[in-house]
Design brief:
The structure holds two protein chains of two kinds.
Chain A (H helix, E strand, L loop, with lengths): L2 E6 L7 H14 L4 E5 L7 H5 L9 H5 L5 H4 L1 E2 L6 E4 L12 H12 L4 E5 L6 H8 L3 E6 L3 H17 L1 H4 L6 E9 L1 H5 L6 H8 L3 E6 L2 H9 L10 H13 L16 H6 L3
Parallel strand pairs in A: 1-5, 1-6, 2-4, 2-5, 6-7, 7-8
Antiparallel strand pairs in A: 3-4
Helix pairs in contact in A: 1-12
Chain B lengths: L1 H6 L6 H20 L5 H15 L7 E8 L2 E8 L39
Antiparallel strand pairs in B: 1-2
The chains are: A alpha/beta, B alpha+beta.
């Protein structure tokens, strides 16, 4: 049975699209047939992060309106055969994502994929609610920072009351915390909320901690999801998070100061 | 670092402040989020009723539903400033006292402040 996962946060700029691209790619690398959908109508960016911006012909809205078939709009990833990108439209009509249309498209995707990863827009308006409505699982992307944590709490509340599972009294949406842009040094100095702090405040299970890393910007510059960079600490943390998502036990990395040799600190990469 | 901590044990770092502030604000927001849907309407009605007797502002009346185990508690807090008490007119138990009648003597018209007899 295909699983619908939404990456959501409330707040913008916390790393939803980066995380959606990384997690979808990570699932595909594990052999799962995965599609990642951009729900951010008007502000399409997943195509850039996935590096397929020049291959977009038809989009989500075209398929919903019946102007294109699903297989005309899906873009097959060039790095992994299991991975597809479903770009959104750049229309200004924010209400273009009709709930019944979205449901129809998701039902069709469920027949062909193991995982449907939805990249939600920021905020708690129509687009964000539509993105989370059909979710079976939600990954709450949070930065260790007050406004992000507060907005995450709000979104967790919305998932518990406004999602399809909530409205139909089904088993609740499984929520997972993904803490991004984490800086161990700043936590040690007492300048940043720690993993334990955020876990305690939001009280949802932790899926992973992604360290602040220069490789994330490099990945978006080149349109390569960060999990394809084997040297990247962020990439490895995302792969760990994906492994945990499918039920493996993995220890949290990069939460202890790394013991580095003189050689590595001179020549190694961050 | 350790030595500094010993010297200035009172100094709270900003992450601790962030955590405390978040805990307080989220406790408030969660309480209002989980509240039943009729609460705003109830609050409006209460405001109207209480407002007949006492001058109150919207933000001085708070209605909350607390929950512990299997009992729910409806909690209504009204902040009242004594000086804002309105004269009571429409209560059945407390009839308005008749105003003292002022009898004016013809010659006292020049001095209306004279106490009525």
């Amino acid at each position: 049975m295909a699983k619908v996962i939404v990456l959501t946060s409330g707040k913008g700029g916390v790393g939803k699209t980066t995380s959606a691209a990384a997690i979808a790619s990570g699932l595909a690398l594990r052999g799962k047939r995965t599609v990642v959908i951009d729900f951010d109508v008007g502000l399409r960016n997943l195509d850039l992060i996935m590096g397929c911006e020049r291959r977009v012909v038809f989009d989500f809205i075209n398929v919903i309106n019946g102007d294109a078939k699903l297989n005309q709009a899906l873009i097959k990833d060039k790095r992994n055969d299991n991975l597809y990108v479903f770009p959104t439209s750049q229309t200004r009509d924010k209400e273009a994502l009709k709930r019944d249309g979205v449901e129809r498209v998701l039902d069709e995707l469920k027949e062909n994929f193991d995982y449907i990863v939805c990249d939600s827009p920021a905020g708690i308006e129509h687009g964000a609610i539509t993105a989370l409505y059909f979710a079976d699982s939600a990954i709450i992307v949070t930065n260790p920072e007050v406004s992000s944590v507060r907005d995450s709490d709000r979104i967790i509340g919305i998932l518990a009351s406004k999602s399809r599972r909530a409205e139909h009294n089904l088993e609740p949406v499984q929520v997972h915390l993904l803490l991004t842009r984490y800086s161990l040094e700043r936590v040690k100095k007492g300048e940043m909320l720690s993993v334990e702090d955020v876990k305690e405040i939001l009280s949802i299970p932790l899926l992973g901690v992604i360290p602040e890393s220069e490789t994330v910007l490099k990945a978006s510059n080149t349109g390569t999801p960060v999990v394809f960079d084997e040297e990247s600490p962020a990439g490895r943390s995302y792969l760990d998070a994906v492994a945990r998502f499918v039920g493996e036990q993995r220890e949290m990395r990069f939460l202890q100061p790394e013991r580095r040799s003189i050689f590595r600190s001179l020549f190694g990469r961050a | 670092m350790r030595l500094l901590d010993l010297l200035f044990p009172e100094r709270r770092n900003s992450a601790v402040i962030a955590k405390d502030r978040l805990k307080i604000v989220l406790a408030h927001e969660r309480a209002s989020r989980d509240a039943p849907e009729f609460l705003p309407a109830l609050q409006k009605d209460l405001l109207e009723v209480v407002g007949r007797y006492v001058e109150i502002r919207d933000d001085t009346l708070r209605v909350n539903v607390g929950k512990s185990a299997d009992t729910s508690l409806l909690e209504i807090n009204v902040e009242i400033d004594r000086s804002l008490f309105k004269p009571v007119h429409n209560s059945a138990t407390m009839r308005p006292r008749p105003l003292p009648t002022v009898r004016l003597e013809p010659e006292s018209q020049a001095a209306p402040w004279v106490k009525p007899g």
